[in-house]
Specification:
heterodimer; A: 456 residues; alpha/beta; Rossmann fold; five-stranded mixed beta sheet; 12 helices; globular; B: 356 residues; mainly alpha; 2 domains
């Protein structure tokens, strides 16, 4: 089955991580941030000075079904030494013991799901339509598994799958055992490679699995777009679970070995990365140590996630957070170009065809964080509508937002925006469309909540 | 060049506050004209496409330039003077408004300032050019909030003002086109070398200029509209670089041709030969360079078709059935009025499809 798509664009960013997976040296201390993209681990369950074993729970997030922040290594807990972090000192690698959840021989669906939460595998799940953590005791309508990660740069599915295909297949089977009859959609990119063939060969026979191919074009690996393409639109009572390659591998680890999922393969890429590759890392690994000597240009912006949707990592964060899938590093621009807008642009790749580069197939470019233009009013070029994968009209929504007509903004489908960032990327007027739309979504959600509250 | 860059950096603080703070937009415009701006992406996406409004407008100017050069060739150095007056007066208005509004100076006036003299009769007094461009930029654009927020094409508003206010000059200030290798490109023609009438006027009396002359442009008419050949070249360039939308052009010319053929077969006494009318007057110039102005046309692709059909149809009807010999200006201005409504209708239709 092939997904029908419209729009999308691959940003020509240099510094794509190679398939190599590098192990990081053992750290002396780990700095585990208490917040990440979705979670806030506010419930600390260890005391200052406590000795913990690997896989032990340090804190939980009560707002998200008590998902735990796990100790990746044995060590001594220090609370409050670094603000908003739990510090693990004197970390040591120790034998991990299987963790018992429920009765040892319990194989019921409910026990398995509790095991996933306790061992840190549930954090890899998200609701395809909302992106939030789904209820582990809920009944999904379907499960979407994606091996593709198309944003520059996330961890590559092929790097994570290489040599782990058995575990991946086992993970899928475990996943199926959590369900009753609901289908699992396996989303793979439309590529011809030995690995892709191997995946097809080994998984084709599985009756519960439906394989869906998507073009290798950003952002069609986005779960909300996949759910819409598969006819699985938002329905609060029947969520769609979604997870990526590392999630399936975590399910396998949690249910086959009963061990905590603390080690993950993250990507390290971007034009300012000296050697873009993948890293085998744990949460809390000191960012300083990862970045030391790893940047080819400084100052650089360190982004948690990809260049299009990631968040800048500030000074306050000391270690990798529990959800980090990859780091993208971009140099800050240093030089200003003379007559930048008059240059022929032979090497300047653009979505538009206003540069000579349109005449050739240029390779990826070492882009910086430069805005590359001045902010202007919308000139209605229509590029944002063309590139939008969600088929909404960003320019029109922007116009209504500008005039404060939130009702019209809602009517034009701002809620369908998946925040891929392509409209902001292509905009010649450098309008922050993505930011505007995400803010409007929040505002609309708030208003809806107010409307639902009974009148006091 | 490092020296210049450092000079700008040294000068910048003097425009931050104090008496010169008001001239900040002017300083920024000059600074950013020489060097790409310093700003960085504050929020995700952290990387951006190299295209900016400056480049976009540069492309538009490159597309219109052949028509301007042809104007100089056919009608002489007067055209250069008209372009200069238009740029200086239009630019001054733009800068003034930017300073008063404390907003950045928009590159849009570079296109407006070039297009405006090209749609005027070549022997028009220069002071009229100045009055027209000032009126067009102020009333057609600035009162609505500047480039990007204007409902009307500012150049056409200025021309419309002149056509109504100074109708005699606007319908008689023609110059006989030059020929040979250099045409009139070396002479400055005064207001005394005035020829009789444009091909469209003569056509009303049943006298049709040869098609070849219309194609190459050695006929009387507005500065930039006479040569179909260079307009096509520049227009196709704009379509290729996707600054002009092909849908608007196709809809305008297509509807003009189809409706013209249909009506000519029904009432031949009122409607002239379609092929001849396609090349005569400002239709091609309007279709390629004015109807395609993205700001004043509908944003939606579906809307562009409707908009183009409106322009093509209205032009034909005004030309053939009214006392006016040319209808492009009114057709585009009328379609400008309809553009937001067209967009709204298309958006509603799209939303209904999205909602399923």
């Amino acid at each position: 089955m092939r997904l029908r798509t419209k729009g999308g664009y691959n940003v020509p960013l240099a510094g794509k991580p190679t398939g190599e997976i590098r192990a990081l040296p053992e750290p002396d201390a780990l700095y585990l941030p208490l917040t990440s993209r979705r979670f806030a681990f506010t419930q600390t369950v260890v005391e200052d000075g406590a000795e913990v074993a690997p896989g032990e729970v340090l804190a939980t997030d009560p707002a998200n079904f008590d998902v735990p922040l796990l100790a990746p290594r044995a060590g001594t807990v220090r609370l409050g030494t670094v603000e908003n972090h739990i510090t693990l000192e004197n970390t040591r690698r120790e034998m991990e013991r299987p963790v018992q959840v429920g009765t040892p021989d319990g194989h019921s669906i409910e026990v398995k799901r509790r095991r996933l939460v306790r061992l840190g595998a549930w954090q890899f799940f998200e609701d395809a339509n909302t992106g939030r953590l789904p209820d582990p005791s809920g009944v999904p309508r379907a499960v979407v598994v994606s091996t593709a990660r198309l944003e520059p740069f996330g961890p590559r599915g092929d790097a994570q799958l290489a040599g782990r295909l058995d575990a991946f297949e086992r993970g899928l089977e475990h996943l199926q055992s959590l369900l009753e009859y609901q289908p699992i959609y396996l989303v793979v990119p439309d590529v011809q490679s030995p690995l892709a063939r191997e995946v097809h060969e080994s998984l084709r026979g599985l009756a519960y699995l439906r394989i869906v191919t998507i073009p290798l074009r950003y952002p069609f690996d986005h779960f909300a777009l996949l759910a819409r393409g598969l006819g699985l639109e938002a329905d609060p009572s029947r969520p769609v679970w979604a997870l990526r390659t590392e999630g399936v591998l975590a399910v396998d680890r949690a249910l086959t070995a009963c061990r905590a999922c603390t080690e993950r393969i993250i990507s390290f890429g971007g034009p300012a990365a000296r050697e873009p590759a993948h890293l085998s890392a744990v949460a809390g690994y000191p960012l300083e140590d990862i970045l030391a000597g790893a940047l080819s240009e400084e100052p650089a912006r360190i982004i948690n996630g990809g260049a299009l949707t990631g968040e800048t990592i500030g000074e306050a964060q000391k270690g990798l957070d529990a959800e980090c899938a990859g780091l993208t590093v971009l140099a800050e621009p240093r030089r200003r170009e003379l007559f930048a807008f008059l240059r022929p642009g032979w090497t300047r790749r653009s979505y538009s065809v206003c540069f000579l580069s349109a005449l050739r197939r240029a390779g990826p470019e070492p882009l910086t964080t430069a805005l590359r233009g001045e902010k202007r009013a919308c000139i209605a070029c229509g590029f944002c509508e063309e590139v939008c994968p969600a088929r909404i009209m960003p320019h029109l929504i922007h116009k209504y937002l500008y005039s404060g007509a939130l009702d019209d903004v809602e009517r034009l489908g701002v809620d369908l925006c998946v925040g891929c960032g392509l409209c902001s990327y292509v905009c010649p007027s450098k309008i922050e469309l993505r930011e505007e739309f995400l803010e409007a979504q929040e505002q609309l959600a708030e208003e809806r909540q107010h409307a639902e509250e009974p009148l006091a | 060049m490092r020296v210049l860059e450092r000079l700008f950096d040294r000068l910048r603080p003097t425009f931050d506050k104090g008496r010169l703070a008001r001239a900040r937009p002017l300083f920024d415009a000059i600074n950013n004209f020489f060097f790409g701006p310093k700003t960085v992406a504050r929020v995700a996406p952290h990387v951006r496409d190299p295209l900016d409004v400056k480049r976009y407008m540069t492309m538009a100017i490159v597309g219109i330039a052949p028509a301007a050069l042809a104007g100089i060739y056919f009608f002489g150095l007067r055209v250069v003077a008209m372009i200069l007056v238009s740029y200086i007066v239009g630019g001054a208005v733009e800068v003034l408004f930017a300073i008063v509004r404390k907003e950045e100076i928009n590159e849009g006036f570079l296109v407006t300032g070039l297009i405006f003299p090209l749609i005027l009769p070549p022997a028009l007094p220069l002071w009229m050019v100045a009055v027209g461009v000032a009126f067009g930029v102020i009333v057609g654009k600035e009162v609505f909030g500047g480039t990007g927020r204007n409902p009307f094409n500012p150049a056409l508003v200025g021309r419309c003002f002149l056509a109504i206010g100074y109708s005699k000059a606007m319908t008689s200030a023609w110059i006989e086109p030059g020929g040979g290798w250099i045409g009139r490109a070396t002479e400055y023609v005064g207001a005394d070398v005035v020829s009789s009438a444009t091909p469209l006027v003569l056509a009303k009396q049943g006298e049709f200029a040869p098609l070849a002359n219309l194609f190459w442009g050695n006929v009387t008419g507005c500065v930039g509209e006479t040569s179909a050949a260079v307009i096509l070249a520049g227009g196709l360039f704009l379509i290729l670089v996707r600054v002009a939308n092909w849908r608007t052009v196709a809809a305008t010319l297509g509807s003009f041709a189809l409706l013209g053929l249909l009506l000519r077969s029904l009432v031949p006494e009122h409607f002239g030969p379609v092929g001849w009318h396609m090349l005569a007057g400002g239709l091609l110039f309007g279709a390629f360079f004015m109807a395609t102005d993205p700001v004043t046309s509908p944003i939606t692709n579906g809307g562009k078709w409707v908009y183009g059909v409106l322009i093509g149809g209205l032009t034909l009807l005004i030309r053939s059935l009214t006392g006016y010999v040319e209808g492009v200006m009114f057709a585009i201005l009328l379609a400008n009025i309809a553009a937001p409504t067209i967009d709204e209708a298309v958006a509603r239709w799209r939303v209904r499809k999205l909602g399923k």
